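Q: Could you predict the 3D structure of Transcriptional regulator WhiB?
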Amino acid sequence: MTYARTSWRENAACRSTDAEELFADSATQNRAKAICTGCPVRAECLAEALDNRVEFGLWGGMTERERRALLRRRPDVESWRQVLEIAHYEHDRSRRPRAC
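A: Sure. Here are the predicted structure tokens for Transcriptional regulator WhiB:
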């Protein structure tokens, strides 16, 4: 997660997608979620939505319902950006080969 806070949108997989696809009803949300798969800024996008309590649309591969559930489960989190950056770092670190 090395993208500057203001420029992550430029690298988003959905940047050229019709916005209506990302604010779709529940019947088409799974198709829209496929756009997020493999997106290089998925975590930044999700953090933006969670930190700013964005109520509508698909952000970081999560629907508004999924984000609300996550926020209810973790009301103690003050910075989702920080949580996701740490998780990303730990994930990368666990995948590195270990020295003998």
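Q: Anything worth pointing out?
A: The chain has one domain: 8-95.
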